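Dear Dr. V.,

Thank you for agreeing to look over these. As mentioned in my earlier message, I'm a first-year student in the group and I'm still getting used to reading structure tokens, so any feedback on how I've presented them would be very welcome. I ran two proteins. I've put each sequence directly above its structure. The first is here:
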Amino acid sequence: MDLSQAEAVADLIASTNKATHKMALSQLKGHFSNELSLLREKLLKMTSLLELELDFSDHEELEFADRSELQALAEEINHKITTLAHSFETGNALKQGVAVAIVGKTNVGKSTLLNRLLHEEKAIVSDIHGTTRDVIEDTTLIDGITFRFIDTAGIRKTDDVVENIGIERTFQKMEEAKIVIWLLDEQPSASEIEEMKLKNQGKKLLVVFNKMDKLENDKLAFDKFTHSCGSDSSESEAPLFISARTGENVSSLEQALVKAADIPEITENDVIITSARHYEALLRAHDSLSRVLESMEMGMSGDIIAEDLKMVLEELGEITGGQISSQETLNNIFKHFCIGK
């Protein structure tokens, strides 16, 4: 058992849904380790050939490592490392919860919606404007996916220093979130719609009209609102109408969240990165291998290329424990284990 497999034991114990269980099991079975082993084997072959050239540096006509073949192999390895690193977005979302920020003006029902989605009274609900002054976060499962809901301070102009700090944090959480629920209880202006879309480019924006129980089936209000919020962007859906107070149509919002999360089906054979430590090591390996490719294109000497290849090997080795840079790294990993349970 290598270090990444040992970490998978802790992940398996801590798993909160089927997807995280499958990802931890895949890592424990050595699927990730095997991928890295194959990459290291190819890198070692490249490094060995370059080192061999250095041993025969007096014979300049000898070239054990064909540069075009080496470059093609380096590009192949770099592509694989990039693919593994990109999987961290999915892995981290499944492990930590897909971040969903609930934003809107004061008293539109953000805290009521949070409590409804969490099925508990997590946030204080009051008719007083500006009750929520800080960010409140908690997680829940919807269709086997962990969502991390973030209730934010209501957006409005205020002279209250503390409330303004909360509003600033609201905008920060909008930046961090993958999905933003824009909760409304009245028709927004065209400028408000454009501003919200602009601030959430590249994110999934769910426009949600709350307090539908108070609309008294006013079809005209529904039609006007739908028309004003209708999006020509693939990043947002058609507006939803709910009542956070009664729970009416909240199930439709939950299904919209599952769709917006866009989480692929996970199997025990999939290799998906869930550890920030692994992700950072892969990024460093990618950077070193990118330098290798640059050196090859510039016609640099074999010793320079070999040094960067060794760096790639070291970074990949840190993941499995084949090359640990310090005892501190090991201590940091194993402190998450609870001996005796």
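The second protein is here, in the same arrangement:
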Amino acid sequence: MKTLSISKSMQICMAAILFVITVLYTNKAQAQTTTAEEHTIERTVKGIISGTDGPLKDVNVFLKGTITGTTTNGKGEFTFPTPLNTGDVLTFSYLGYTTKNVKIKKDTTFIALSLTEEYVEFVGAPNSNQPYKSKQQKSLEE
């Protein structure tokens, strides 16, 4: 049997380790690329929003953290005006109902959501049935 010198066996060992590291690094890079591609898939999202008495008109639907949004029509339907990516969050709000957030998943194209009523107490001055009187001086009348 032939014996190899220590330096030759070290070269073979280093080459094998370098090959394994290269293979593992390449597989990791491919996995990250796939995940990034899933986030860039844009899709149009539609939906219908209802409450306890049926469809809700004029529900605010907007992309969280932006001013981009729309409102529902008389049938509670909406179509979001811009394409959305995986991970985006839509916020649904309507006076007298609890605000809800919905995270867009990779297969989300339609959202059917039911908002729950929220007790809202309006605070204001009581009606005194007295005519309004201005606190400004009446210098123009003189």
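From my reading of the second output: The beta strands are 46-51, 54-55, 60-63, 69-71, 77-79, 89-93, 100-103, 110-114. The first strand starts at residue 46 and ends at 51. Does that match how you would interpret it?

Kind regards,
E.
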